[in-house]
């Protein structure tokens, strides 16, 4: 990367349009950022925010439109060009090489083409320390990335972009993986940095937008629907602009549960992918007719818990019981037949087979039952009928049930998975990040379906990184920290601050 | 034959036998570190072996005769680079399945070498090839001298390529890029590194070394060419990269291990121990399977994106 | 599939084949032959007479069988390159069975012999399947190694324990087994030719494979495991079991191909019997889109190529192993084309490009101009 020569006084986007097959991601977008400004880019999931910023960062090429920097038109063919002009981006999924040190990661971006043999790590280290001191971002340059926590990795990302000479920082959902305390910390830092740099940050969390930004631009379905000063609008006004209507997410009045224990985990010890103990003596009980929310910073064992319960990950010691039967280390198939439903984290690779039709995906767990097959021959008519029924009932938007599952939008794929799971009327349902990346309309639908299941007597273990979602929907909230349940509270007693402290491991005993 | 003599034979033969494997495998290491595995290595070795053979076969008179072998090595490397480029086009630009594409390249290389051989040469002919060059002084060390210092110059170069590869991979900017591109191509891309270009470069280096390995087989080891000369060494070279944990020293160790197994088999036969010929020939291939079966943990430490094409516009 | 998509797909496949032929032409030129003459010979030579046509079909039979097995394995997510070795093991099993039980009536012996071939090939492939499922061993490498091992084992048996005692007596030492008893021969379909009942068997099996993969629960499991292994696991499908079953099927089909060759064509086990059907079968499977409806015509086409390639040695002076070059290049072309085939993005781009040439419905066209 070459150092940017001039500071950015003004950045203008005009008429930016970008298409992907079947989707108009950006529709004639115009906005501007001035020096020292913090612009919040807001919109539902799928509104086109990330795509727009990726264009600005040089990763995508716009199909139409211009970018003007300090009055001159510029064209970014790749991130090098963007950085040369002082635009740097911190992505939602960190762009770091895990088995290299901080120095090596930064060095990757600081080498020119012709410095083929040259690798001056000392100079890179020097630069890192300079930037770190100047912006008060402490970091250990010799640490390997995999050794760092999420918050520390984010700091490395910030330092990296600053080392490359960024004068305009783009941050994509910077607080999605942080605890409430780390979030406050980051917002303070960004406020301080905005004295020198311009910042665009993408978020769908309106309270952060209010705290940090000067101006707000709202995207809906790829088009700018609003552009103005943050101070002039309330969060509910912004929310309405984001979705285009009044959306009130369904709310659980609490006081559910009290039914029989349908699912329990006792003293579970489970190993993670890297051989460490992801679950270290975890105890949990899920009752019929309740939603148990599991709050925690991602990486504290949520995934491993969901997998252990479903039979997808071996349990080293401890017990998993479903309906009073010991189901520890049984196969996923056994768990499914015993009445466990599972909405997985990665809808594209774990929830559906993208190349299978919607029809086939809807019977993915039931095709060998007598309803859908006789003597191993599939009953195609019944499968089709089932698909049509579920498509209606669950409002799945697709051209036909013979369309490939992977061609649906994220929200609709989630509805397919939801339809499949709920149609089986599971006694216990594990839902992992069920509304991640899904637009508000689909979110409302999914939430109401989950509440309906709860009313019908099912128990739901809701694992989510959105505290609001957990607080909204759960009867009780359990906080997971380093592989153990730190505390379980009734949701009426849970506040953002209290949960935040627990999520960071600060027990309030 | 006393066992001391047999051990000496195994070791002194095993060292030069390992060179072709080691060269191809070092090249494949660069490929895999960048995230691409090239099973066509076998086909590239076939082409390299044949092309290295040609100059010596044709140049019987004229000023270029003393350089025939050198020319052979050079065109073998050039062919390797071209085939590496072809493979890069298919797997990096067209993002084809690397395993199947590799088999396609292997059939192609093997086929072309065979066709050209049948047409231009016809039958199996032997060559003088490259003479052994004992290192002055060092080769006279009793026992070790014969094992380590009495080989063709190409063998010495090959062993020197081991530390050279290590340096290239870990101490240069290019090596840093290669390692980043194989583990976290998205991160590298976001920092302005052209992921596809680095992969192309790695595949060209890999191809060159595979071609060189094939040339070694013809000019320094067998001193002739036949359709089945390479006999699966290219595949073994790919397997060796897993075995050597993607590190030059590990690969060298693996190559030596394999050739010692082969020379052991030869010694057993010569030594008159009753062992069916075909079973002895099977040995290296069985060894590969055993080695791969035991390498389970290793795969965890391999380049994370090995085998997965890079697509910046992929939305998931 | 709407009309444009069909045209687009066909266009891509044709372009791939054209590129393959172009590269092949370069090699043919290099040996001083005429590409046009060579390709012409390959495509028209074999079909000059009835015998030629039946020869093409004789080649097609093992290709269909091997390709069906490979289609099952590829669709299940496991890449079987070991058909060469599995064919050999099938031949050995079939020959041994036939020679061991010559007294049985044909109606019992023949199916038994074919079954033995299938089992032989299936078990050989099963080794690679188990290694992949339980130990994560890359199946391409393991099946390739198993090919080399099988080849050595085959030679060993044919030169040793299974050699025709007659060869030892006459001292000619050709590595081949005893002739199979006539009870183990597949009947001829057309007299005076080598075309045998194996063709019928292959076609029946092609239909069966279609049913298996798309109409049964087993097939759904296999396809799910191959398309998205994670989702399959989450749905309760045992991916490990699917991988092993798929390899067993693939090997069984290859072994059966070997048994069919031995009982239908050669009537004894000889060297060089598999003559590259294992690799050609992979190309046929890919070319046929991994679907029985595509595999059968693709196999006939490749049978044509194989017979034609034999002829080119005489007529065009191109060595017969040119076929390997063509196979390799076709594989490369097809897997490259795949990126464009199912790619909605590329399809849209092409559609946009061609839309420019469509006459606008309202405005009159400017003379010689485009919009």
Describe the structure.
The complex is a heterotrimer of chains A (509), B (316) and C (371). Chain A is α/β, with parallel strands linked by helices and 509 residues long. Helices cover 32% and strands 26% of the residues of chain A. Chain A has helices at residues 49-56, 79-84, 102-110, 121-134, 150-163, 180-193, 206-212, 235-243, 302-310, 332-337, 347-351, 358-362, 380-393, 410-423, 440-455, 467-473, 496-503; strands at 10-20, 23-34, 38-43, 64-69, 72-74, 87-90, 168-172, 198-203, 215-220, 223-229, 261-271, 277-287, 291-295, 315-322, 325-326, 340-343, 373-374, 377-378, 428-432, 459-463, 476-481, 484-490. In chain A, the strands form 5 sheets. Chain A has a 6-stranded mixed beta sheet with strand order 6-7-8-3-9-10, sandwiched between helices. Chain A has a 6-stranded mixed beta sheet with strand order 16-19-20-13-21-22, sandwiched between helices. The longest helix of chain A has 16 residues, at 440-455. The model of chain B has no long low-confidence stretch (mean pLDDT 87). Chain C folds into 2 domains: 1-31 and 321-351, no CATH class; 50-318, Orthogonal Bundle (ABC transporter involved in vitamin B12 uptake, BtuC), CATH 1.10.3470. Chain C has 371 residues and is mainly α. Chain C is built from 15 helices and no strands. Chain C is 73% helix and 0% strand. The interface between B and C is large, with 52 and 48 residues.
Strand and helix map with partners:
The complex is a heterotrimer of chains A (509), B (316) and C (371).
Chain A: E1 10-20, E2 23-34, E3 38-43, H1 49-56, E4 64-69, E5 72-74, H2 79-84, E6 87-90, H3 102-110, H4 121-134, H5 150-163, E7 168-172, H6 180-193, E8 198-203, H7 206-212, E9 215-220, E10 223-229, H8 235-243, E11 261-271, E12 277-287, E13 291-295, H9 302-310, E14 315-322, E15 325-326, H10 332-337, E16 340-343, H11 347-351, H12 358-362, E17 373-374, E18 377-378, H13 380-393, H14 410-423, E19 428-432, H15 440-455, E20 459-463, H16 467-473, E21 476-481, E22 484-490, H17 496-503
Parallel strand pairs in A: 3-8, 3-9, 6-7, 7-8, 13-20, 13-21, 16-19, 19-20
Antiparallel strand pairs in A: 1-2, 1-4, 4-5, 9-10, 11-12, 11-14, 14-15, 17-18, 21-22
Chain B: H1 3-33, H2 41-58, H3 68-93, H4 98-121, E1 133-134, H5 144-148, E2 150-151, H6 153-171, H7 173-183, H8 185-190, H9 195-222, H10 233-243, H11 248-270, H12 277-293, H13 296-300
Chain C: H1 3-30, H2 35-44, H3 50-75, H4 83-100, H5 106-135, H6 139-159, H7 165-170, H8 198-215, H9 217-227, H10 229-234, H11 239-266, H12 277-287, H13 292-315, H14 322-341, H15 344-355
């Amino acid at each position: 990367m070459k150092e940017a020569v001039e500071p950015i006084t003004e950045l203008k986007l005009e008429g930016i349009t970008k298409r992907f097959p079947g989707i108009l991601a950006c529709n004639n977008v115009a906005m501007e950022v001035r020096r020292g400004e913090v612009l919040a880019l807001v919109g539902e999931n799928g509104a086109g925010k990330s795509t727009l910023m990726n264009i600005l960062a040089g990763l995508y090429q716009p199909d139409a439109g211009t970018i003007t920097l300090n009055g001159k038109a510029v064209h970014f063919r790749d991130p090098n060009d963007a950085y040369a002009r002082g635009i740097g981006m911190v992505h939602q999924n960190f762009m770091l090489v895990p088995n290299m040190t901080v120095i090596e990661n930064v060095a990757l971006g600081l080498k020119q083409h012709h410095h083929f043999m040259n690798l001056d790590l000392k100079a890179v280290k020097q630069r890192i320390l300079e930037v770190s001191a100047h912006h008060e971002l402490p970091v250990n340059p010799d640490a390997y990335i995999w050794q760092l926590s999420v918050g520390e990795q984010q700091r490395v990302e910030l330092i990296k972009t600053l080392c490359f000479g960024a004068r305009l920082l783009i941050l994509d959902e910077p607080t999605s993986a942080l605890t409430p305390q780390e979030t406050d910390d980051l917002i303070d830092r960004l406020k301080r940095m905005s004295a020198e740099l311009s910042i665009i940050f993408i978020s769908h969390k309106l309270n952060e937008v209010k705290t940090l930004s000067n101006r707000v631009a709202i995207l809906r379905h790829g088009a700018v629907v609003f552009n103005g000063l943050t101070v002039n609008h309330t969060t509910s006004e912004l929310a309405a602009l984001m979705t285009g209507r009044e959306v009130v997410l369904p709310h659980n009045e609490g006081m559910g549960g009290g039914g029989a224990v349908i699912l329990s985990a006792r003293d579970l010890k489970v190993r993670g992918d890297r051989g460490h103990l992801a679950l270290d003596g975890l105890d949990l009980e899920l009752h019929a007719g309740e939603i148990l929310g599991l709050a925690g910073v991602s990486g504290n064992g949520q995934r491993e818990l969901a997998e252990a319960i479903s039979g997808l990950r071996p349990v080293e010691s401890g017990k998993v019981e479903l309906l009073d039967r010991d189901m520890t280390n049984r196969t996923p198939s056994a768990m499914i037949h015993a009445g466990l439903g599972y909405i997985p984290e990665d809808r594209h690779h774990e929830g559906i087979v993208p190349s299978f039709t919607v029809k086939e995906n809807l019977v993915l767990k039931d095709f060998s039952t007598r309803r859908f097959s006789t003597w191993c021959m599939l009953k195609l008519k019944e499968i089709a009928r089932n698909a049509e029924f579920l498509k209606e009932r669950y409002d799945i938007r697709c051209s036909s049930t013979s369309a490939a599952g992977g061609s649906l939008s994220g929200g609709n794929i989630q509805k397919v998975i939801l339809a499949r799971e709920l149609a089986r009327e599971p006694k216990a349902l594990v839902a992992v990040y069920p509304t991640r990346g899904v637009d508000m309309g689909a979110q409302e639908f999914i939430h109401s379906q989950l509440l309906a299941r709860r009313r019908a007597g099912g128990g739901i273990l809701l694992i989510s990184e959105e505290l609001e979602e957990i607080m909204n929907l759960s009867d009780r909230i359990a906080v997971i920290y380093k592989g153990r349940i730190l505390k379980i509270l009734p949701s009426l007693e849970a506040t953002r601050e209290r949960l935040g402290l627990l999520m960071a491991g600060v027990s309030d005993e | 034959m006393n066992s001391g003599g047999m051990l000496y034979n195994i070791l002194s033969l095993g060292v030069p036998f390992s060179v072709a494997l080691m060269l191809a495998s070092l090249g494949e290491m660069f490929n895999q570190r960048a995230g691409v595995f090239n099973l066509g290595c076998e086909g590239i070795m076939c082409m390299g072996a044949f092309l290295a053979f040609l100059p010596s076969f044709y140049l019987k008179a004229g000023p270029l005769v003393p350089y025939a072998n050198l020319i052979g090595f050079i065109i073998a490397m050039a062919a390797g680079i071209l085939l590496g480029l072809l493979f890069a086009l298919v797997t990096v630009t067209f993002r084809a399945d690397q395993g199947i594409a590799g088999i396609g390249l292997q059939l192609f290389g093997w086929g072309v070498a065979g066709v050209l051989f049948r047409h231009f040469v016809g039958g199996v002919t032997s060559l003088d090839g490259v003479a052994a060059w004992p290192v002055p002084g060092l080769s006279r060390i009793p026992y070790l001298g014969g094992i380590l210092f009495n080989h063709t110059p190409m063998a010495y170069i090959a062993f020197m390529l081991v530390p050279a590869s290590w340096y290239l991979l870990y101490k240069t900017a290019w090596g840093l890029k290669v390692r980043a591109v194989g583990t976290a191509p998205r991160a590298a891309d976001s920092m302005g590194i052209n992921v596809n270009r680095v992969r192309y470069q790695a595949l060209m280096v890999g191809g060159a070394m595979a071609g060189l390995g094939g040339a070694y087989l013809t000019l320094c080891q067998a001193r002739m060419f036949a359709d089945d000369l390479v006999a699966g060494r290219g595949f073994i070279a790919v397997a060796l990269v897993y075995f050597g944990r993607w590190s030059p020293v590990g690969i060298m160790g693996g190559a030596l291990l394999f050739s010692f197994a082969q020379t052991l088999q030869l010694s057993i036969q010569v030594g008159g121990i009753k062992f069916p010929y075909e079973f002895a020939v099977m040995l290296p291939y069985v060894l590969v399977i055993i080695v791969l079966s035991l390498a389970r943990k290793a795969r965890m430490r391999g380049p994370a994106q090995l085998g997965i094409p890079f697509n910046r516009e992929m939305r998931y | 599939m709407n009309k444009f998509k069909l045209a687009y797909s066909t266009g891509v496949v044709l372009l791939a084949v054209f590129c393959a032929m172009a590269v092949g032409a370069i090699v043919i030129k290099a040996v001083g032959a005429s590409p046009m003459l060579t390709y012409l010979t390959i495509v028209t030579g074999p079909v000059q007479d009835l015998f030629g046509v039946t020869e093409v079909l004789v080649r097609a039979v093992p290709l269909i069988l091997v390709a069906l097995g490979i289609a099952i394995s590829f669709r299940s997510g496991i890449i079987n390159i070991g058909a060469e070795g599995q064919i050999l093991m099938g031949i050995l099993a079939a020959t041994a069975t036939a020679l061991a039980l010559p007294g049985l009536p044909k109606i019992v012996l023949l199916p038994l012999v074919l079954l033995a071939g299938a089992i032989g090939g299936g078990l050989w492939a099963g080794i690679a399947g188990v290694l992949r499922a339980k130990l994560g061993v890359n199946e391409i490498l393991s099946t390739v190694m198993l090919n080399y091992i099988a080849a050595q084992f085959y030679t060993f048996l044919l030169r040793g324990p299974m050699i025709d005692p007659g060869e030892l007596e006459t001292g000619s030492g050709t590595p081949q087994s005893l002739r199979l008893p006539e009870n183990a021969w597949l009947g001829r379909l057309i007299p005076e030719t080598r075309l045998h009942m194996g063709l019928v068997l292959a076609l029946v099996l092609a239909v069966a494979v279609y049913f298996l993969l798309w109409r049964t629960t087993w097939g759904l499991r296999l396809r799910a495991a191959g398309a998205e292994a994670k989702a399959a696991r989450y749905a309760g499908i045992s991916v490990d079991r699917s991988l092993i079953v798929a390899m067993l099927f693939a090997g069984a089909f290859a072994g059966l191909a070997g048994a069919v060759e031995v009982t239908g064509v050669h009537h004894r086990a000889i060297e060089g019997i598999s003559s590259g059907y294992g690799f050609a079968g992979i190309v046929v499977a890919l070319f046929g889109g991994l679907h029985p409806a595509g595999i059968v015509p693709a196999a006939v086409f490749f049978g044509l190529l194989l017979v034609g390639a034999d002829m080119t040695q005489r007529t065009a002076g191109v060595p017969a192993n040119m076929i390997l070059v063509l196979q390799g290049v076709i594989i490369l072309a097809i897997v490259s084309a795949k990126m464009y085939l199912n790619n909605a993005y590329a399809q849209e781009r092409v559609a946009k490009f061609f839309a420019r040439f469509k006459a606008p419905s309202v405005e009159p066209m400017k003379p010689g101009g485009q919009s």
